[in-house]
Design brief:
CATH architecture of the largest domain: 3-Layer(aba) Sandwich
Strand order of the largest sheet: 8-9-7-10-11-12
Structural class: alpha/beta
Number of helices: 13
CATH topology of the largest domain: UDP-N-acetylmuramoyl-L-alanine:D-glutamate ligase
Shape: globular
Helix content: 25-40%
Number of domains: 3
Amino acid sequence: MIPLPLDHVAQLGELDRVPWTDVVTGVQVDSRRIEEGDLFVAVGDGAAYRKHAFARGAAATLVPANEHAALAALAAAVRGRSSAQVVAITGSMGKTTTKDVLAAIASPQRRTVAAERSFNNEIGVPLTLCRIEEDTELVVLELAMRGFGQIAELCEVARPHVGVVTMIAPVHLEKVGDVAGVVRAKSELIAALPAGGIAVVPEGFAVDRDDLQVVRVGEDVRLESFEPPLLATSVGTVEVSFTARHLAQNGLVALATARAIGLDIPQRLDVAFAQWRNQELALPGGGVLINDAWNANPISMRAALEHLAHLAAGRRRVAVLGEMAELGAYSEEAHEEVARAVREIGVDLLVSVGPRARVYGGRTAGGADEAIEVVRADLQPGDCVLVKGARALGLERVAVALASVPRE
């Protein structure tokens, strides 16, 4: 991190510092991640871990008067000291995987800082910005939306030069009402861009500004074909490490963004996706487990089921599908959509997790632990298994349990 004076930090709350330095060179909210010279910001019950932070080499600990405001102020201070180009990615789906693909393209070409996992909210975005070094050339952020104004607030801190909207879908409707509300919320990113900035948006997404360079994915940049491992687009053909067809669109958005900011399009691209997203793990007897347990909505559920069918290639299909959250008045219809996808695409063993998932059919489970028992009782060598559902269900536990079954 670009060093920050402790005198600046002291304005944000109760500061405790070591006597031998006047600056901090990193920011953490988890004392276990502290490195020498870091500032530990106590969020939640973090004040109880200040001694642990010092034991690991912290230069200072801060108990903020307002934790989100303090993190935002720290991040803004670091961002203000940097000339790096900032790309911010939002969208109803595909934010994290698009970020992962873009980071894989950019890292060999520019000194890049990219968000870890889904560091995309009032805590995660500042933590990413606080990783900027003096020689950082590119920052790739992910911005979440749980309601109106959140993206705008994150942009006040991040000050992005490039705004990317992956796609629009009926997600987080409890906070924004309908798809028009989703568009309005995501448009806050485009509104925050400076004159001369770049907007990478889906075909048909309205941009009511004439002072931006606008790239429309599906129009200016197109997907021509995806026959793994070759992803063919109008900006070039790339050999990729992923096989899921629904990731091709995310790859296209990343390639469109890369070209817009002047990056070269590589011939080969190996992408390390964030945890619990599109992970393919070997199972005993030649089976495969798709751990896509991070979250779910009707569109991503259908895409994951289609990938399961493609990957299984005639082998038995097992799907552990959880209920979906934050869908508001659309919830009942959304779960019916998943039920139709299950019937149309087909699975051999279905385990539906949570009360709202019962409409999917198959066997039912109240939670992750019960789902593990149900699947283990009927899992056969060579089975291909999909695990996906709302984040709150913690279905990654199912994937971990199944992948750890001893091999014969």
